[in-house]
Amino acid sequence: MGIAPIRADRTDRTDRKDGSPKDYPAAHFAIQRHLSRCAGASGKFAVLAIDHRANLAEDMAKARGRPTSKQDMLAFKRAAIHGLAGSYDAVLADPEYGFPALADPALTNNPGNPERESGLLAPLEVTDYSAHPSRRETVFIENWGVEGIVRSGGNGAKLLLFFHPESARAAAQTEGVDRIGAQCRAWGLPFFLEPVVCPLDPDQPLSNEERTQVTVETARHFSQRSVDVLKMPFPLNPDADPDTWEPALRDLDEACAIPWTLLSGGVSFELFSKQAEAACRAGASGVIAGRAVWGEGVALEGDALNAFMKTTARQRMETLAALCNRYGTPWHGRSQRPELPATWYASGR
Question: Is 106 buried (19+), middle (13-18) or exposed (0-12) by CB count in 10 A?
């Protein structure tokens, strides 16, 4: 299966839509500062993802046998964010429930390094899992965006995009990514893109070979756009033979001209920890992990939920952070340094 080039693509990283650091010194300087805030001292990302909304509410309702209230959502996110504080470098949180859960700064500082508060990333999109991935349209959170994230003290914007390079809407999706990239440049905010690959035909799941090829081509494509960090899915199906992991991850890493991280994708912690180690050995700059860390907590409430987050979930995040620090590639190894010539600040860009 060959993947045809997308009309809106760029093949030269120096011709990116957002321009080079030389063209936008102030913006790139700010972006690098934000990225440093979101990574550990070694330049690797160990990010807790807790921006789930509709799917989290559904999982909680199913596990608890009753409808999920707004207070349930807030309590869950508060338990995760505070219970794991200090084990992650940054948290990916939504404005509706995640930001309110961060409201008490005394509980969100990094206990291991009180002078360094964790970084904060925020999503731009509404999560809607009612349609097949190939049919899902990007819907943005109302009254929220890049400017809102900056004004709220955030350190990065994240966009989830269900994507296939041969889809009829691939060019339009790319143009949308470029628009968001331009907004992020204007505000000096890092852009984290999560392109989750999907089949063109809802009735034909991707084979391992197809998933690898589509994932690699997607990473190559968006590496040339106005994106700072890619949040990538594992390039094989969960049941793939571990002997096939290394070549698939090597191809993915070679396709990435910018730092990339691995998302957990709802697999078990046992599987994800192995995937994370393999990905970091191949060149990933860390992980942005959610359900693999806190998934079982959806069935718990009150003291039981808090205890789970402070023990099991925390230990998992610490394990992932250690793997990232030991095997990961520092993000700045793949990011162009901002050039600050004399009077660089005069342009305001």
Answer: exposed
Structural domain count, the chain: 1
Has residue 291 been placed in a domain? yes
**16 assigned to some structural domain:** no
What are the residues whose beta carbons fall under 8 Å from the beta carbon of 8, sequence distance 6 or more?
A: 171, 174, 175, 178
Helix axes 54-64, 70-83, angle to 10 degrees: 100
CATH classification at residue 221: 3.20.20.70
Residue 178: inside a domain, yes or no? yes
- Would you say residue 10 lies in a domain? no
pTM over 0.85: yes
Residue appearing with tokens 């809102």: 148
Q: Give the Cα-Cα-Cα angle 299, 46, 182 (nearest 5 degrees).
A: 105
Domain that residue 272 falls in: 21-343
CB-count exposure of residue 162 (10 Å: 0-12, 13-18, 19+): buried
Mean pLDDT of successive 10-residue segments in the chain (349 residues)?
49 44 76 95 96 95 97 97 96 96 68 67 86 78 97 97 94 96 96 96 93 98 96 97 98 98 96 98 98 98 98 98 98 80 66
Helix (H, G, I), strand (E, B) or coil at 128: coil
Alpha-carbon distance 60 to 297, whole Å?
Answer: 9
**Amino acid symbol at 299:** A
